[in-house]
């Protein structure tokens, strides 16, 4: 066995043994791979925020998540850490194609997510791309076939799913909807529905929002399977 295989066996056992009801306080208490742990250390993240400590254990165990916590509570890492870990534990590699798709309502938010992904994922070997328009469709198309993780806005992503032959999503493992409330408020429901139609049904879906609205549960009903509801409320 190689060193990496030994590491994977150990992490898989630890994830299986992890009780997601127990609230952990720091990233070091989670069963994380060396590349993720060292990426988090490089950006000086140690303690888990509430939403992170409540959502990450379920997400590591492969569960769908419907998470709600206010802006600034650390939702980005609540989904990026499971994305990196779950693909790593599946030994995702260059030729496995697109493993995770992260949808964000705006270009600015997509860029922010991508920057965090680049920093925290720096010691992983996944290829990651940003699909937010702005460049020519053709320029984006050429690179899409080689990406393992994409961060995108809904309209541009659907355009590629309809028109880019190089983009193969049949193997997709994870779908993330960030700021699902804003995705709905901005009128992207039909676009997201059409994107989901392109994706394999057997996958893990993580949906995060700042508020719990009826519209979000409509979206959740369409795309989640037996989700774990994780809501962080402000306490007085
Ligand atoms: P949200 O998406 O919920 O609005 P973000 O993921 O953008 O929140 O995080 C808000 C801020 O908190 C960012 O500046 C981020 O770097 C910081 N942050 C996130 N998680 C942690 C953590 N575990 N420890 C310290 N700072 C964190
Ligand atoms: Mg956010």
Automatic annotation (TrEMBL):
Positions of the Helicase ATP-binding domain: 56-230
Motif Q motif: positions: 25-53
Subcellular locations according to the entry: Nucleus, Nucleolus
Domain DEAD-box RNA helicase Q: 25-53
Entry remark concerning the domains of this protein: The Q motif is unique to and characteristic of the DEAD box family of RNA helicases and controls ATP binding and hydrolysis.
Entry function: RNA helicase.
Family: Belongs to the DEAD box helicase family.
The protein's name: ATP-dependent RNA helicase
Species, as recorded: Talaromyces proteolyticus
Full-protein interval shown: 23 to 258 of 830
